[in-house]
C-alpha cells in the first residue's frame, strides 16, 4: 500500500486478494492532506488485518471514476481546468476573458458532445486549421477571425496545459497530448521575442512634459504616469492603491492588491505584499494630492474620473498612445515603464537584490526578463590598447 501524488490530489493504492484498489483524495497534496491520507491508509490496513475490509466501497468508486473518464466532454475538461486556475488564483481577469473565448471557440469547432479522450492529434490539427485560417465568404467552414501566430501559440499553450492537468487529475487517459504537436510547430515558426526597449531618461521627461501641451483633460493622468515610472509598479497595483496603504509621511507605499480590467484581486500578481520606498518627487506629489482631495483611508489614490478603478485598456487607448505621439516618443507598451525603472535603477548601481525586493520578482526573473541595457557600450578591458 502506498500514496501517489497526482497534481493537487493524492491517491492511495493497494492490493487485496490479488485485485487492485485505489482511493482518490482531491486537493489533498499538502501537509495536512497528506496526514489525512496516511490516517486513512492506516485505517484500511487495519480493516484488512482484522478481516473487516469491504471491497465494494472501493470497487464502486473505481467504476464511478472510470465512468467519469469515459464520459467527460472536451469542453467540460477545459472548463474544469479554467475553474481550477481561478480557484488557485492563477488567473487575472484578462486571462479569464481569454479562457472564456477559448471555451466558446472549442464549443463552436468541436461541438458539445465530443469526448475529451476522443480528441486526437488529427482532430487538433483540423481544429486549429479551421480556427486560425483567414475567413472566407466562399467557405463557411473557415473561421470568423484572423489572429497572429503568437496569439495562437498562447491559446495552444492553454489547451496543452488543460489536457496535461486532466491527466494528472485522473480525468482523462491519453499517452500523447493531442495539442502538443501544434504547439511545437508554432514554437519553431515564431522568432524569439524581442526584449523591450526601455525609455531613456530624456524620453521619460518628454512624456511628462507632453501633458502640458495637450487638452486639460489629460492632466488628470499626469500624476499616475509619474508614479508608475518612479516605482516600476504594475498598472493594476497602482490602480488599486488606497490611501490607507500610503504612510503618513508619504515616503512609503505598500502594495497589497491588484486590478485587472476593473476587477479587484485581493493580492498582488505574485501573491506577496510589497513595500516600496518613494522618491522625493513622489513624496511631494502624494502630499499635494492628499491635501487637495482630503480623502478617507479607503479612497483610491488614483481613481478614474468617475471615482472607479482605472482600466488599463482604456488608459492605453485614450491617454497613453496620444501622450507618446505628443512627446515624439517611439511607441512601446505601457509595461515598458516597469522595465525602464528596473534598468535605470541597475544602471545607477542599485544592487539587484534590492531592486528585486521592491519590484516583487526573484533575482533570476529580474535578470532574465526585466534588466536591459540603457546604452550599449564596451564593457571589456582592452589590455592591448596603448
Secondary-structure blueprint of this entry?
Elements: E1 2-6, E2 9-16, E3 19-25, H1 31-49, H2 56-71, H3 74-87, H4 93-110, H5 121-132, H6 149-168, H7 180-189, H8 201-210, H9 222-231, H10 235-240, E4 252-255, E5 258-260, E6 263-265, E7 274-277, H11 280-293, H12 312-327, H13 336-347, H14 352-359, H15 363-370
Helix pairs in contact: 3-4, 3-6, 6-7, 8-12, 9-13
Walkthrough of the structure:
- With 386 residues, the protein is mostly helical.
- It folds into 3 domains: 2-68, no CATH class; 74-189; 201-370, Orthogonal Bundle (hpI Integrase, Chain A), CATH 1.10.443.10.
- It has 15 helices and 7 strands.
- It has helices at 31-49, 56-71, 74-87, 93-110, 121-132, 149-168, 180-189, 201-210, 222-231, 235-240, 280-293, 312-327, 336-347, 352-359, 363-370; strands spanning 2-6, 9-16, 19-25, 252-255, 258-260, 263-265, 274-277.
- The chain has a 3-stranded antiparallel sheet. Strands 4-7 form a two-stranded antiparallel sheet.
- Helix 3 packs across helix 6, helix 6 (149-168) packs antiparallel against helix 7 and helix 9 crosses helix 13 (336-347).
- The chain is globular.
- The N and C termini lie far apart (75 Å).
Amino acid at each position: 500500500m502506498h500514496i501517489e501524488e497526482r497534481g493537487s490530489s493524492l491517491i492511495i493504492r493497494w492490493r487485496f486478494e490479488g485485485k487492485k484498489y485505489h482511493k482518490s483524495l482531491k486537493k489533498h497534496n499538502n501537509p495536512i492532506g497528506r496526514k489525512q491520507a496516511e490516517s486513512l491508509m492506516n485505517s484500511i490496513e487495519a480493516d484488512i488485518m482484522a478481516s473487516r475490509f469491504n471491497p465494494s466501497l472501493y470497487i464502486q468508486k473505481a467504476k464511478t471514476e472510470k465512468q467519469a473518464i469515459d464520459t467527460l466532454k472536451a469542453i467540460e475538461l477545459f472548463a474544469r481546468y479554467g475553474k481550477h486556475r481561478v480557484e488557485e488564483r492563477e488567473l487575472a481577469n484578462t486571462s479569464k476573458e481569454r479562457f472564456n473565448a477559448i471555451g466558446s471557440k472549442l464549443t463552436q469547432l468541436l461541438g458539445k458532445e465530443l469526448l475529451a479522450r476522443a480528441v486526437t492529434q488529427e482532430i487538433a490539427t483540423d481544429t486549429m486549421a479551421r480556427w486560425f485560417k483567414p475567413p472566407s465568404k466562399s467557405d463557411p467552414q473557415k473561421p470568423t477571425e484572423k489572429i497572429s501566430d503568437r496569439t495562437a501559440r498562447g491559446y495552444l499553450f492553454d489547451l496543452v496545459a488543460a489536457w496535461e492537468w486532466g491527466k494528472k487529475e485522473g480525468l482523462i487517459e491519453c499517452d500523447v497530448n493531442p495539442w502538443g504537436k501544434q504547439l511545437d510547430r508554432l514554437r519553431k515558426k515564431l522568432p524569439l521575442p524581442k526584449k523591450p526597449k526601455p525609455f531613456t531618461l530624456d524620453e521619460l521627461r518628454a512624456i511628462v512634459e507632453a501633458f502640458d501641451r495637450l487638452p486639460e483633460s489629460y492632466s488628470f493622468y499626469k500624476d499616475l504616469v509619474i508614479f508608475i515610472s518612479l516605482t516600476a509598479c504594475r498598472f493594476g497595483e497602482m490602480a488599486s492603491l488606497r490611501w490607507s496603504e500610503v504612510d503618513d509621511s508619504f515616503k512609503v507605499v505598500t502594495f497589497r492588491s491588484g486590478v485587472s480590467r476593473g476587477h479587484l484581486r485581493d493580492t498582488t500578481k505574485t501573491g506577496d505584499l510589497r513595500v516600496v520606498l518613494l522618491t522625493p518627487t513622489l513624496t511631494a506629489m502624494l502630499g499635494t494630492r492628499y491635501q487637495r482631495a482630503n480623502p478617507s483611508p479607503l479612497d483610491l489614490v488614483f481613481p478614474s474620473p468617475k471615482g472607479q478603478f482605472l482600466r488599463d485598456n482604456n488608459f492605453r487607448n485614450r491617454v497613453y498612445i496620444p501622450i507618446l505621439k505628443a512627446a515624439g516618443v517611439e511607441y512601446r507598451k505601457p509595461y515598458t515603464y516597469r522595465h525602464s525603472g528596473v534598468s535605470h535603477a541597475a544602471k545607477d548601481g542599485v544592487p539587484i537584490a534590492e531592486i528585486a525586493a521592491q519590484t516583487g520578482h526573484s533575482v533570476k526573473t529580474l535578470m532574465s526578463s526585466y534588466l536591459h541595457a540603457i546604452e550599449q557600450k564596451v564593457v571589456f578591458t582592452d589590455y592591448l590598447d596603448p
